[in-house]
Amino acid sequence: MRCPRCAASLPGRPNFCLRCGTALEDDDRAGAGRGHRPGADEPAGVADALAEGLAEAARLIACPQCGATNAASRMMCGRCGRRLDTPAPEADAGEEPRPVPHSPGRFRLLVAALALVAGSVVVGVVLAFAAARGLGPFTGVVPAPAVTGPAALETVAASASSAAPAAGDVTYDAANVLDGDPTTAWHEGERGSGIDEWVEVELAAERPVSRVLVWNGYQRQGRFADHARVARMEISVAERVFTVDLRDLQGPQAVDLPEPVTADRVRLTILDVYPGDRYEDTAISEIEIFGPRTEGG
User: Which phi and psi angles does 274 have, rounded to 5°?
Assistant: First the structure.
């Protein structure tokens, strides 16, 4: 059988020419089935070409595309039709990862944010300095004092509606409520338990009053229950009057006013008492007056 394209002599009945890969028609294969018998008048080179084709066909090569075995004389694979004289494509190793391009816009945004924060801090420091020094728009502005808690107010004198007479060197005057000694006391001097009797504390200056601290009864050791103690009283601060109940116990009791009241004196008036075991007179050992604490005051 001969290839109609390249005239190569082909053994058997292949689907493609072993030299050029041309697809062979059925007629070509049918003619090849009858065999080739060169005649006497056939050129001598035909026999040599046939021998060369057979030798080339005997050498086998693999298809670079599908791996099928083909004769070395073929131009195209008998299975997939790929040209056998072209090398197999190199395997794609994959693209190397591209570096993420630097975004100048993001960097500029970060720089702008940092600059804004730094600027805000600087402005805050400058304004605080100006306010502390009374400069610029803060000229003439007096900062309000910071309230941090109650502070004891200075007292100068105490007076009372009555006082029990002294017993030897022990006195019961109103001044005893300001001497800082709870073992001394003011004892009212009226007959009975002293209802409506009062003791008044004078301040060194007119100040806001927010708390009254009271040591109720006669706090001297072993004498507390002997004398009457205040059960209810009125606290008069300027034009304001507050009614409060005291507990029947030793030690200080704090009475906080609903709001500070500015005054230069505070009066305590007895409304009701806890009766004494031995004596009717009512006693108060110590009084302290407090006002809102201010910075530097």
Answer: -95, 120
3-state secondary structure of 66: coil
Give the bridge partners for 39, in sequence order: none
DSSP 4: T
CB atoms within 10 A of CB 245: 12
Torsion sign (Cα): 166, 171, 177, 178: positive
Q: What is the largest CA-CA distance in the chain?
A: 176
Verify that 158 and 251 share a domain, yes or no.
yes
Identify the pLDDT of residue 144.
46
Domain shared by 184 and 266, yes or no: yes
Q: Which residues of the chain have pLDDT under 50?
A: 29-42, 44, 46, 91, 93, 138, 140-147
Last residue of a domain, one of 44, 74, 90: 90
Tell me, yes or no, whether 98 lies in a domain: no
d(CA 200, CA 189): 15
Assess contact for 74 and 19: CB atoms under 8 A: yes
Whether residue 159 is found in the same domain as residue 283: yes
Rounded CA-CA distance 253/6 in Å is 128
CATH code for the domain of 196: 2.60.120.260
Same-domain check for residues 160 and 280: yes
Task: Give the pTM.
Answer: 0.51
Cβ pair 47, 9 in contact under 8 A: no
Measured between alpha carbons, how far is 252 from 215 in angstroms, rounded to an integer?
5
Within this chain, do residues 180 and 290 fall inside the same structural domain, yes or no? yes
Q: How many domains does the chain have?
A: 2
Domain that holds residue 266: 150-294
Reduced to 3 states (helix: H, G, I; strand: E, B; else coil), residue 234 is: strand
